[in-house]
Design goal:
elongated
Length: 65
């Protein structure tokens, strides 16, 4: 069973590598779920959103190693 799953994952990986040009033509939207109100917003939600926005900006600019 594990060998079959490994083969499927291997095949999907190489199929994904075959089409990078098709993926690059359209924007990719990523959503996050976080607290933006309530008691948990201060220590968890807002810093998580700010960190995600920083990482997204760096990825778009090509500055992330």
């Amino acid at each position: 069973m594990m060998v079959r799953i490994g083969r499927v994952v291997f095949a999907l990986f190489f199929c994904a590598l075959a089409l990078p040009g098709a993926w690059a033509q359209q924007p990719l939207k990523i959503g996050i779920v976080t607290f933006l109100s309530g008691a948990a917003a201060g220590p968890f939600g807002v810093p998580a959103r700010n960190g995600f926005e920083l990482v997204a900006e760096m990825l778009n600019a090509g500055r992330v190693p």
